[in-house]
Please model this.
Amino acid sequence: MSNYPYRQDREELKELLLQYHNLKTGISHSFIDEDAFEKIIDYFDEKDQLAQSLEAAEFAVEQYPYSSSLLLKKCDLLIASKKYKQALYFLDQAALLDNRDINLYILKTDALLALDQHSKAASVLETALDSFEGEEKIELLFELADVHDDYENFDKVFDCMKMILEQDPLNEEALYKICFWTDFTGRNEEGIRLHQQIIEEHPFSELAWFNLAAAYQGIKLYEKAIDAYKYAIAIDEKFDYAWRNMGDAYLRLRKYKDAIEALQKVLELARPEDVIYEAIAHCYDKLHNYAQARSNYRKATHLNQEDTQLFYKIACTYMNEGTWESAIKNLQIAMRVHKMQPEFNLAMGQCLMEQGKIEQAVQYFGNVVRTKPKNVNGWVELLKCLYNAKCYEEGLEYVDHAMVLTNSKPIFIYYKSAFLFALGKSKEAILQLELGMEKNPKLIKKFIELSPSLLQNQSVVDVIARFKKGKSI
Model:
């Protein structure tokens, strides 16, 4: 054996190319076998010399007219040259020579798809399935799944993955793909049954346990999902996606401490992501541990500085602690990019109102109602601010706007009553208060919160008492 096999291969190829040139130009009539022709065709193809490769294939087919493999190579090159109808003609010829070559059906599918004949392409593969077994059948099913995916027949993609797993329950590619398609098509119950069957035969398949868990999660059976994820992790403790999804399931169940533990495990096993830090921060936020929440939100900002929502969420943790100045600083960062974002403006207005900076607060609440005129919260905060600033005339004007734009939400009837009382228009105020009580008596709490001193007004007390007798507030 030669000590330099690669050099020997190059020399052999060089000799083959010379023989091919001589044969093509008629200099000699040397013999080139089928395998040698395939090497010549592949050489030109690898060099991206498509025309020369196709020419060699045509020459080879002339020499070996009954060679299905050479004819398929020619068809492949015709498809690459966008000569789809020619390719289909010669594929039919190849089928007469050998209809047991899987490449025949794959190439025919490629040509039909290029001609936008999706139904025919799918039909070719579906018909071919009956002629193949084992790995070849599985390959055809993957091809068929791709055809259905391209033409958005997503349920049929799921069906293909299911058929593959029924033949090969541990096929990793199918297990990975069916997890997505189960969720996408919403066929979670079917996914549960399929993976339960796989687990019965293969109890140590972590992917099957993961898919079972994900299917449970898809129909909001979070406790069952967590149990299945635990099995996946018991088999592979470094299965970061199982830890990640389990963290999400705990979060949905509001088991925030367990969620934090699972999500921190994800950070140990995988590359840190801003969404993981944000999820951990959200859990700490719900546990009222605002310092830890801020710490994790900040880690998320280091990985994704463009997400202004993170700075808003940091601001909210400060607002929950009543640290208004720090909240304002973070809101200012958030608003550098999204100056008119209603959520940010609403929070900024609330902070400024708490600091007694009423005029500035009104401006921010005004931004909210201009940007989202049907947003009830924006109007509520604006009106509260105007009431606290004793801008009663202006408040009465704005409350009428709010009622028109929010389809007369009952809260604004109460607010109108409060502004009328403040302006000394008691009769009109009582009428509005009675109307508000008729619409939604429970909102009387909001009315009293706006101005507790109104409970000193006997007319107000009488209205509330009258409605308490007739209805439960």
